[in-house]
Amino acid sequence: MTAAEDRSGVVDLQTVRLLLDRLGVSTDDLVANTAPRTVPTFDEYLDRIADAVSPGSQRAYATYWRRIREVWGHRRLDEPTASEIKQLAESAKRTAVVRSNSRGGRSAAEHMISALRCLYQHAVADGLLSEAANPAVRVAKPRRLASTRHALTDGQLTQVFAAASTTGNDPELDTLLLRLHVETACRRGGALALRHIDLDVEQCLVRLREKGETVRWQPVSPSLMQHLLAHAEQRGAGAGTREQLLRYRNGRLITRRRYDYIWQRIGRHLPWVATQQISTHWLRHTTLTWVERNFSYAVARAFAGHTGRNDAGPTATYVRADVHEVAAATAALTGEPHPLQQKLPSVITRGPNQGRNGALVEGTRTPKAQGVDLR
C-alpha cells in the first residue's frame, strides 16, 4: 500500500467518525446493532431536569423554560436549529417587560440563550445529543453593556440609613440588614442563608454561602456580631440553630421580598433612590470601592469573595489576600478593632493611606456614615 492510499484511508475514517458524531450515533450503537436513543421532546425533558439544577438556576430560568414549552414543547431536542434559537432570543428581547431600568431587553435575550444552553448541556451529558449536535453553543449571547451601578457617597449612604431606621414596620431589622451588607459586601443570597451556626463569635467571623456554592468566612465588627446574636435570640434563631437567622418579630423567616419592600419604601422618601433604581447590590459596590481605594485590589477581591481566575490573571495566585488582611480592612471600615487584625505581619500594617501609627490618615473617605450605628 502506498503512502497516498494509507493517507486516504485515514481521511475516510475521520469523515465517517465526523458523520456518526453529527448523527449522534456511537460506535457502540453500530456494534450492538441497536438504534440510537430516542430524543425526547422539550416538554418531556424539562420535566426531567427541573430538579437537577440549583435553586438559583431554577429562579433564573423558570420564566424562559415556560416560554420554551409554549413554543417548542412538542418538538424533539434535536429539531431546533441555531437560527431558530436566535429567533426565539430576539422574540424574548422584543417582549421583555419594560421597567425603569430596562436596557432594551438584552438581559431577556441573554437569559433565554443561557436557559437553552443549560438544557442542552444536560442533554449532552445524558448522551441524548453529541457536543457537535448542540445548537445552543453556536448562538452568541448579546454583549453586556457596562453596569450603571457605582459607589454611593457618604451623604447618600447616610440618607439611606436614616430613611431605613426611621420608617417602616421593622426598622431594626432593616437597619441590621443594611449594615450587614455594608460591612461584608455580601450578596442578598449570602445574608438570607446566614444561620446561627455560621457565627464565629470569638473571631468575629460570619460564614457566607453565596452563588456558585461558594463558602467563605468574612470578618465583621464586634458590635455587628453582638447585634446579630441579639437578633437571633429575640426572634427565635437560638444557639446551634441550622435555620435562617434573619427573621421578623414573630419568628417568620424573611425572603427576598423584604429587600424589595426596603428599597421601595426608601425610594418614596428619597426620590433619587427610586430614579436611579438603587438596590442592595449598590452597597456591595460602595464597600468594595472603598476597600480597593484604601487597601489594594487583592484585598478587595478577597473581601468580595471572588475566586475566579479569568478576571485578574495568574498573578492573583501569588498576591491573594487572606482573612487577616480582610479583617484589617473591616477594622478600618468600621472604626472598631478586630480580633484577627493583630495577627497581620508588621510589614503590611502601614499602607499608602496610613499614618505612622498604622491608623488611616485623617480625611480618608470611608463608607461608614452617620446612622449606620445600631446602638
TrEMBL record:
Domain Tyr recombinase: from-to ranges: 147-331
Family: Belongs to the 'phage' integrase family.
Organism: Dactylosporangium salmoneum
Entry keyword DNA-binding: yes
Keyword Thylakoid belongs to the record: no
Listed Pfam families: Phage_integrase
Keywords noted in UniProt: DNA recombination, DNA-binding
InterPro entries in the record: CB, DNA_brk_join_enz, Integrase-like_cat_sf, Integrase_catalytic, Integrase_recombinase_N, Tyrosine_recombinase_XerCD
Region (Disordered): 334-375
Name used for this protein in its record: Integrase
Ranges where the Core-binding (CB) domain occurs: 40-124
Gene3D superfamilies noted in UniProt: 1.10.150.130, Intergrase catalytic core
Matching SUPFAM superfamilies: DNA breaking-rejoining enzymes (SSF56349)
